[in-house]
Amino acid sequence: MLHIVACIKQVPDTKIIKMNPKTNTMDRASAPAILNPYDAHAVEEAVRLKQRYGGVVSVVTMGPPPAVKAIRKCIEIGADAGYLVTDRAFAGADTLATSYAITKAIEKIAEEHPVDLVICGKMTIDGDTGQVGPGVARRLDIPPLTNVKKVVEVNKEQGYAIVHRKLEDGHEVVQSTLPCLFSVEKEINEVPYSPLPNMLRAARYNPVVWSVNDLGDIDRTLLGLKGSPTIVAKVWPPEKPKGGEMLEGTATEQVERLMDILREKQGLFRVKEGQS
Amino acid sequence: MAEKFDVIVVGAGPAGTACAYTLAKAGVSVLLMERGEYPGSKNVMGGVLYRKTMEDIIPGFYKEAPVERPIVEQRFMMLDKESALNFSYKGMEWAQEPYNNFTVLRAKFDQWFADKAVQEGALLLNETVALSCIVEDGKVVGIKTDRPDGDVYADVVVLADGVNSLLAKSLGFHKEFRPDEVALAVMEVLKLDRKIIEDRFNLEGDHGCTIEIFGDSTKGILGTAWLYTNKDSLNIGVGTMLSGLIKHKLKPYELLDYVKNHPMIRPYIQGCEQQEYLAHLIPEGGYRSMPKVVGNGVIVVGDAAQLVNAIHREGSNMAMASGVMAAETIMQAREANDFSEKMLMPYRDSLLNSFVGQDLKKYKDATHHFEKFPQYFEQYIPLMNKAASQMFTVDGSSKWNKQKKIWSDLGSAKDKWKMARDLMNAWRVMK
Amino acid sequence: MNLEEYRGIWVYLEARDGQIAPVSLELLGAGRQMADKRGVPLAGLLIGDGVEELAQTAFPYGADQVYVYDQRIFADYRTESYMRAVIECVEKHKPEIILYGATTTGKDLASAVATDLQTGLTADTTMLDVNAETGLLEASRPAFGGNIMATILCKKHRPQMATVRPKVMKALEADQTRTGEVIKESIKLAEEDIRTKVLKIVRETREKVRLDEADVIVAGGKGLGSKEGFQLIHRFAESIGATVGASRDAVEAGWVDHAHQVGQTGVTVTPKIYFAIGISGAIQHLVGMRNSGLIIAINKDPNALIFQACHYGIVGDAFEIVPLLMKAFQKEPDREVTYG
Ligand SMILES: Cc1cc2nc3c(=O)[nH]c(=O)nc-3n(C[C@H](O)[C@H](O)[C@H](O)COP(=O)(O)OP(=O)(O)OC[C@H]3O[C@@H](n4cnc5c(N)ncnc54)[C@H](O)[C@@H]3O)c2cc1C
Ligand SMILES: Cc1cc2nc3c(=O)[nH]c(=O)nc-3n(C[C@H](O)[C@H](O)[C@H](O)COP(=O)(O)OP(=O)(O)OC[C@H]3O[C@@H](n4cnc5c(N)ncnc54)[C@H](O)[C@@H]3O)c2cc1C
Ligand SMILES: Nc1ncnc2c1ncn2[C@@H]1O[C@H](COP(=O)(O)O)[C@@H](O)[C@H]1O
């Protein structure tokens, strides 16, 4: 029986956030919150491993109370249990402080049921760093395996896992002891359309909710803004490029003008006589 | 093993949610099924929510619901090509509790309302499409969804799936709409700074106003355009009978572009940024188009039952009222543990006896009348504009002369008779 | 923590296939500027098996020193072993800043090191600067998923760390007369201490998309409307011998493989000519292509941001303009297009 914990996060759907080009502000309010797409793959992979080897999938998230919705989404995918750690004290956490809070939660989950494997998404679409996964692994003192695109084997009896890690020009096959942490690429699986019974279970599901006090022995100076070595010093609109020359005229005229320009830019581009 | 609920409600719009809320509150196990990502995600409405019906369901709802602005002024605009005749009512009694109406954005409001139903114990299922009713022995016993292992059962199924209800159609309750039974509406949500909105529309603080626009806004096709104020956005839209669009070979968004660029409207929306573009059908067949609304184990509510008052652009309130009436009927049927068509029929009776049925009857000929006689929109509004222009232009000619001129502009004696007759007819269908 | 004790700027030199990864040389360029501003040395940190020779490549690109861990145990990259070396070296020599390429390895290593050192790490930085007096690293990156840049500081912890994507910074012109000091380090580390093993490395033979090396890129976005529509990009690219690029939205729509994605979460490219067709010009896309030699944008919307980032813009429908362009290119059939 494997016990797999997937780390998930609720994020604003950045594809829907629209920027106001004049003021350069974001309209965040209008963006619905969704389960971080990479994390859906993490949960799906956990569920597949559960189906393959038998076991239990728990999901954990640190976030505000509405993150319950993201947990329900994971139940739809097939997770068995969800844990929400939520507290004012976590606010303003950077990746280091985030990994601390998540680690504390996983340790608490493990008290009841030892954890064999932790799975994270490759990155979040809002934080967009990919640093939390390896951070959690380091804090739990288990090997981090990032960029996992295929799980070959998880062998609890003999205490190892074998995965493919994606590299720039291929992949490597890596073996690690268990427990360990994977952060997974999107290509690792496809998240199927959830069956109705899962949907009904998810709609009814209420996760375990923990605050800082529930996490027991915790160093508060390592949490939230206080525990974050990095700060966002300023936010500014990117330098507006000056803009190029707009080609005028009909479509044909524009294209002709462009061809002239391309020919002029001798250094860049040439049309040379062919052989024949 | 497929699950069974007491009631399945298909569609988490105002009708379905009102029904689910009422049932759940009474302790009935109810599954509220919605195909959108969340309730309201795809729902469209010009944006006026009538307080009364909603308040019957959740007293004092406006204190916590995401309403945009209480409406303190209703303006009407009779539009010609380059002019408009306006009148309005503004009343401060509408600016305080219990208010009259509110503007709302459905994406927010529906979600809130559905959450309320969930708090009462309804089970909300998003992103799930009801494909068909499961019928056994001539009785609807459940819903087949698009999900794997997707069947789910109930004593009663409530179809609140909106205009063009595929489920009611598949049960043979109604046929495909005729183009003269539905209006096609397109609208945009335009973002605008709230301070600018308040200045531009002469509003104090949170107050809101609605502008209904007739005449040139639809290029003479039967329909209306509207411009409503939200907190920090405007709703602008135009709705016309499908048949009119077809006849005039117009695309709805062309019409909306025309409205947005109209010199009488342009200034209101200057500097706005388009946030959303939406299109939707409105069932405007009225009383005569009302389908069968009750069957064995099934009830149809809201737009799915064609419950819209096109003349007063009421729909959501009728939808909610019908949802509540359906819930009440179902609760009675539960006492007898009999969900046959006969046991559910009281729903239809209460519907017809309520303001919903009464209003639908009152205006049963209106849409068809205006559709049949385009002169109301094509001729009379321009005439009114011209008259006003002549009357108010100070050019040295006496008011007597002006009146004479206006009178003669109305055409020959025959034309005048015709106009008088038209006005009488209009009065008759509307009274 | 006494911040004063930390001095010097480091670049993690990623050794790959017997070479220093280009991104590491680019970072030496950025590091050199900051080191000069601060008046501190610029060092490389090189870890591997049989890599000592490579240290020499770093000097022409700006390094003053290179710390080298050349040990058998470092034959394969493994987070646990490499991390130990970095941490030991940091504890010994106390640099104020460490830069890593935002490659698979660089990101993995930096994340682990930052956690153990309990310091700040800024991911996928696109701009770097340092305060000459305080030594505070100003690492900027697009943030919050929107068109906004954020400058991130790490005030009270050292070393300050950042990862930077390939091709974002510019390597210095190699100065072969420059030399530097190789400082040999070693760490006591037994194979049993390491919990992972690389069993096999598989180079994918499947045709690689070498966007970062392309001279001409024809990139398409969501404006192509569909997978079929995107074929226009393939046809145009093929007809002029260009490589196909894409915006993330086109990739996510499934019209084209992720390997073609240009931008913050794709590849950073610097071709001589970049055609952006039906691409709106979101900052995450722009950061990936704005250093191209000549940017030509084709978009229906005259207000599209891409027109502010291009050299020449055509307002028009891709399905009208591109076929005309293809025709223009083909006009003289026995001529051949070359770039360079
Ligand atoms: C442009 C426009 C302006 C309007 N302006 C006003 C106004 O100002 N004031 C007013 O009171 N009324 C207005 N109306 C009318 C009002 O919007 C409708 O009458 C009201 O929304 C009807 O509610 P309903 O619950 O019956 O249907 P809907 O609100 O349409 O809800 C139906 C729900 O069912 C879901 N659904 C549909 N099929 C399925 C399926 N197969 N499976 C699962 N879920 C399904 C839909 O996603 C939707 O959430 C307007 C309508 C339009 C189009
Ligand atoms: C964390 C994060 C990382 C990201 N990383 C990347 C990244 O690496 N790369 C990337 O590209 N994006 C990235 N994005 C996404 C980015 O913000 C934009 O959403 C994306 O670049 C938009 O793609 P697009 O321009 O193809 O689509 P759109 O923004 O939808 O633009 C389509 C354009 O096509 C035009 N058009 C439509 N029809 C036609 C026609 N027939 N002819 C000509 N023009 C037409 C339209 O006017 C429009 O300007 C990232 C976002 C986030 C939040
Ligand atoms: N607040 C959080 N709660 C739980 N898991 C998280 C949280 N933030 C990040 N993660 C996990 O860490 C991965 C990388 O996130 P990031 O470093 O933010 O890109 C995500 O895909 C999640 O699996």
TrEMBL record, chain A:
<feature type="domain" description="Electron transfer flavoprotein alpha/beta-subunit N-terminal">
    <location>
        <begin position="23"/>
        <end position="219"/>
    </location>
</feature>
<protein>
    <recommendedName>
        <fullName>Electron transfer flavoprotein small subunit</fullName>
    </recommendedName>
</protein>
<dbReference type="GO" id="GO:0009055">
    <property type="term" value="F:electron transfer activity"/>
</dbReference>
<dbReference type="InterPro" id="IPR014730">
    <property type="entry name" value="ETF_a/b_N"/>
</dbReference>
<dbReference type="InterPro" id="IPR014729">
    <property type="entry name" value="Rossmann-like_a/b/a_fold"/>
</dbReference>
<dbReference type="InterPro" id="IPR012255">
    <property type="entry name" value="ETF_b"/>
</dbReference>
<dbReference type="InterPro" id="IPR033948">
    <property type="entry name" value="ETF_beta_N"/>
</dbReference>
<dbReference type="Pfam" id="PF01012">
    <property type="entry name" value="ETF"/>
</dbReference>
UniProtKB/TrEMBL annotation, chain B:
<feature type="domain" description="FixC-like C-terminal">
    <location>
        <begin position="367"/>
        <end position="431"/>
    </location>
</feature>
<keyword id="KW-0560">Oxidoreductase</keyword>
<comment type="similarity">
    <text>Belongs to the ETF-QO/FixC family.</text>
</comment>
<dbReference type="Pfam" id="PF26311">
    <property type="entry name" value="ETF-QO_FixC_C"/>
</dbReference>
<dbReference type="InterPro" id="IPR059103">
    <property type="entry name" value="FixC-like_C"/>
</dbReference>
<dbReference type="InterPro" id="IPR039651">
    <property type="entry name" value="FixC-like"/>
</dbReference>
<dbReference type="Pfam" id="PF12831">
    <property type="entry name" value="FAD_oxidored"/>
</dbReference>
<dbReference type="GO" id="GO:0016491">
    <property type="term" value="F:oxidoreductase activity"/>
</dbReference>
<keyword id="KW-0285">Flavoprotein</keyword>
<protein>
    <submittedName>
        <fullName>Protein FixC</fullName>
    </submittedName>
</protein>
<dbReference type="InterPro" id="IPR036188">
    <property type="entry name" value="FAD/NAD-bd_sf"/>
</dbReference>
<keyword id="KW-0274">FAD</keyword>
UniProtKB/TrEMBL annotation, chain C:
<keyword id="KW-0285">Flavoprotein</keyword>
<dbReference type="InterPro" id="IPR033947">
    <property type="entry name" value="ETF_alpha_N"/>
</dbReference>
<dbReference type="InterPro" id="IPR014730">
    <property type="entry name" value="ETF_a/b_N"/>
</dbReference>
<feature type="domain" description="Electron transfer flavoprotein alpha/beta-subunit N-terminal">
    <location>
        <begin position="9"/>
        <end position="198"/>
    </location>
</feature>
<dbReference type="GO" id="GO:0033539">
    <property type="term" value="P:fatty acid beta-oxidation using acyl-CoA dehydrogenase"/>
</dbReference>
<keyword id="KW-0274">FAD</keyword>
<dbReference type="InterPro" id="IPR014731">
    <property type="entry name" value="ETF_asu_C"/>
</dbReference>
<feature type="binding site">
    <location>
        <begin position="247"/>
        <end position="248"/>
    </location>
    <ligand>
        <name>FAD</name>
    </ligand>
</feature>
<feature type="binding site">
    <location>
        <begin position="278"/>
        <end position="285"/>
    </location>
    <ligand>
        <name>FAD</name>
    </ligand>
</feature>
<dbReference type="InterPro" id="IPR014729">
    <property type="entry name" value="Rossmann-like_a/b/a_fold"/>
</dbReference>
<dbReference type="GO" id="GO:0009055">
    <property type="term" value="F:electron transfer activity"/>
</dbReference>
<feature type="binding site">
    <location>
        <position position="299"/>
    </location>
    <ligand>
        <name>FAD</name>
    </ligand>
</feature>
<dbReference type="GO" id="GO:0050660">
    <property type="term" value="F:flavin adenine dinucleotide binding"/>
</dbReference>
<dbReference type="Pfam" id="PF00766">
    <property type="entry name" value="ETF_alpha"/>
</dbReference>
<comment type="similarity">
    <text>Belongs to the ETF alpha-subunit/FixB family.</text>
</comment>
